[in-house]
Amino acid sequence: xxxxxxxxxxxTTLREFEVPxxxxxxxxxxxxxxxxxxxxxxxxxVTWEYDSSLSIPQEDLAYLNECDMYAERLPARAIExxxxxFDMAIFGAFVPQIKMLVRTFKxxxxxxxxxxxxxxxxxxxxxxxxxxxxEDIIRLGDRFWxxxxxxxxxxxxxxxxxKQYVYLPIGLKHDRVDKIWTGGDxxxxxxxxxxxxxxxxxxxxxxxxxxxxxxxHVIGGAQMIPVPDDPAVMGxxxxxxxxxxMRHLAAMYYHSREPRHLHYHxxxxxxxxxxxxxxxxxxxxxxxxxxxxxxxxxxPQARAMLRRLSNGDMRLAKRIVDKxxxxxxxxxxxxxxxxxxxxxxxxQELIERRASVQMATKAFEAKIAIVLPMAYTGGxxxxxxxxxxxxxxxxxxxxxxxxxxxxYVDTPVYAKHDYFRRVRNAGIQTQRFxxxxxxxxxxxxxxxxxxxxxxxxxxxxxxxEDGIQSLQNFDYCIFASDRxxxxxxxxxxxAIVVHDVIQRYIPGMFDLSYEALRQINNRKANxxxxxxxxxxxxxxxxxxxxxxxVVEIPPVYEMIQPDKLIDLEIEEDYFVWPTNxxxxxxxxxxxxxxxxxxxxxGKLKCFVTGVNTERFAAQHKENSADDGWNGxxxxxxxxxxxxxxxxIQTSENLRKNIVIKGEQDKEVYFQYLKKAKxxxxxxxxxxxxxxxxxxxxxGVPTVTAQYPPMEYMNARLNASMTMFAPQDxxxxxxxxxxxxxxxxxxxxxxxxxxxxxxxxxxxxxxxxYARIRSMxxxx
Length: 779
Known about the structure:
Structural class: alpha/beta
């Protein structure tokens, strides 16, 4: 059996040592050909020299070479190639890359941990992304290994990383002291990269200038943004200049006191025989530097030593160089290869054991929660139900073992009607839950029970409580809306459906602090689901979502059976205005336009339907209830609801012609819709109005505000909609009069029921499920 490794790093010095060693150990090695220089590491590079070690088909190798192996998502073909030919992956702490591997790669995974600064660790690094990433890693069991380059790294990590620890020391291609240094240049060499792009290194640079700026010096290290105000900062150097510095500069100063991280450059100085002056208390102490003459306990001591070296004190230089070679002992080929061979012997046993177990090919398995985070009874509820049924049907067609549970908030709202009958009739479990705010003590208890590291858990957040496991046993959770209590905590991978960004266009809909938290929360989700190209664009430009994490599924429309509807006996002619009480529904401008419509001779009644619209029929407290217009007093009305109610109530035309039907059962609503002359949709800024699709199936034309989602719906469904400018009351009134006169003719231009059928959930569910399945699998 061929032994192959994905070596998914691009560090030049590291690759020069590790890859040839792995090839000598009998492995074929793939190295990435695309590197994201935005990481700021210009010491990285790409090479094709190891491709000759690979015996995989050239077309597959060529395809992998074109893939960004640091991306959070790879094409399905790349994943298939990786899993077909490679048994192991070695990688660094690049979170998007780790998410991709954890989701998609079926072989052994070895994190090469080089150490972090003292303020953090790998447990917090991965847990800070979302607890689900750390949980996903832990679920890998013995397929994930914490490859520590220094023996003390596991000391501060979670129990799982301690258990999966293996020592993989880093080595140097040149692991002995060559003593090419001769001196002669008074300047001190200090390496300070990323000065203007990294706050940590910015402070390191400032400290060096404060403590040693009076000495002649050179500052090396790659700079993503130049530092033009300091001529000593030379940036990334060509090979000739780098070699000059190593041969002739007076000494190198190494600042770091970090206990669990070490840079390469002090080791390179030692290998070249350059005097190294370094601060006590860091990693160099641990690898043999605690008694070296170049070690300094204080800044004044280091400054005095560097001044002597700058002034040409060759006796001091010789004493430092003669002793410091011991720092290379743990970076030598013999030492490193011994530990690597021991680790890889164990890895290979695991790989062969897994290969020897003949497992039957299993269908895709997943347990998915669909969550209604608020007491929705309108479009979001319909969407959640249709999505749930589409996933169930798609999984059944594929033969996948997918279990779905539809969660809904425990509220009296859902006691009024059996909203979830269709879901239960399809054999899908429904489950009530409530949001509960938990404090730090609760999360510490959760950490103890589940084995989390408590440092990665929030101090106070809302969690879902269902009396059972609160989503802890699910593989994936899909929140049907981004209207969530904040901050909130989800113990598993999750996606959030973002239907619209109305608040971007209707200021004041949400408190600014809530809106900021909501977008932060959206960005933390594993995925964001949208249903139109318009919302894909909004998710990336307004919400700031990584485009790779945005999943676009087709709009989920409900298919109506027109021939099964019972006709209502309604004597008057009317059109339907499906709406709710939200600001973006544009009630003020619509009522202004309706006033004009009726003043100009408009004859059709306006039936208003939708969630909470009956509140527009409630009178103000100060008005009497005997004015002959369905009056009732409701003291809980919002200011906006009172305002809209008052506009209707105080206009004779509107009071006589607007009929508030309120929220109706689906069957009754469809009957009203079927008999209507047309549907009126004056709202804007949302993701499109599904009521217009309902009308289309029933042969009823639509007059609508013109905005991108409705234009997309109109073009996609060939719906022949009449459009108006949503802020122009005159235009709206004109189009209402046009519809009254031409509705019959327009109805004949609409697509047939059979033509529409392919766009409904029943026709789109294979695509919907394919994209949800791909999202959960990670590719």
